[in-house]
Specification:
Pathway: Cofactor biosynthesis; thiamine diphosphate biosynthesis; thiamine diphosphate from thiamine: step 1/1. There is one protein chain. With about 260 residues, the chain is an alpha/beta fold. It has a domain of about 110 residues: Sandwich (Jelly Rolls). The chain has 6 helices and 15 strands. Helix 1 links the parallel strand 2 and strand 3.
């Protein structure tokens, strides 16, 4: 079976604003933080940019010069002056979605998935995904599972981590260690999972992981490639060393890692 390839380092590509994996960014209703250089890099690299309702307030307060491609949600949080700034001054579509069984996060993902195929990115990055209310953080993880069931690749970014869901079977995670690591975790959510890993300080050898039992938190990345074979979807999270963003993982470097 061919391994599912993950290369989260390219989301933070330097230089010309090009990422090897096209992605859309969803701005959530959480404080964006003070790392303007990091945010600017992700913004430039994105193929499409969507604010989830109150996320438009966060973007406006962070830097009103950043203009999204869309704003969507039930629109009960966007401030009037923010809506006027984007909708009237910049002619940005503000798409009201009154579905009470979906969150603004989910509505933003739905909007991206409805884009014409040539405009639809390969994956979605949501930020800031953690750091606020616990229930919202749990919902972000729930959204990972909902997206995986629909074949949508979703990354959750926070000020300290990149988090995503590994698929059943073999997974190969390519890491630029100047950007990501060394702290990491492999965690089951909702049901027991059996994993075998390589490239970690404390590798798993098919043991069952479950809450109330074994959970691989506070692990460390040892190499440039981590391999995880799992019988069910499992949560992967890795430190984001945003203060050390000094190089880009080029296509040739990625190829050399995969051929090792």
């Amino acid at each position: 079976m061919t391994a599912t390839l993950w290369n989260p380092s390219t989301l933070l590509a330097l230089g010309d604003g090009k990422s090897e994996e096209t992605f859309g960014v969803v701005i959530l209703n959480q404080p964006i933080g003070d790392d303007a250089e990091l945010f600017g890099r992700i913004w430039r690299n994105a193929a499409v940019r969507v604010c989830a309702d109150g996320g438009s307030n966060r973007l406006y307060d962070h830097d009103s010069n950043y203009v999204p491609d869309y704003i969507t949600g039930d629109l009960d949080s966007i401030r009037p002056e923010v809506r006027q700034h984007y909708q009237q001054n910049h002619n940005i579509p503000v798409v009201e979605d009154g579905d009470q069984y979906a969150t603004d996060f989910g509505k933003s993902i739905k909007l991206i998935q409805k884009l014409p195929e040539k405009e639809r990115p390969q994956s979605i990055v949501a930020l800031p995904a953690f750091g606020g209310r616990v229930d919202q953080s749990i919902h972000a993880i729930q959204t990972l599972y909902e997206c995986a069931q629909q074949g949508i690749r979703l990354y959750l970014l926070s000020s300290e981590n990149v988090t995503f869901l590994l698929e059943p079977g073999p997974n190969k995670i390519v890491l630029d260690k100047q950007l990501l690591g060394p702290a990491c975790g492999v965690m089951p959510v909702g049901e027991p999972v059996r994993c075998t890993t390589s490239g970690l300080r404390w590798n798993l050898e098919g043991e069952e992981m479950r809450f109330g039992g074994l959970v691989s938190t506070s692990n460390l990345v040892d190499g440039d490639v981590v391999e995880v074979e799992t019988d069910k979807r499992v949560l992967w999270t890795v430190d984001a060393r945003y203060l050390c963003l000094t190089c880009n993982l080029t296509s040739s470097r990625l190829l050399s890692l995969l051929l090792q």
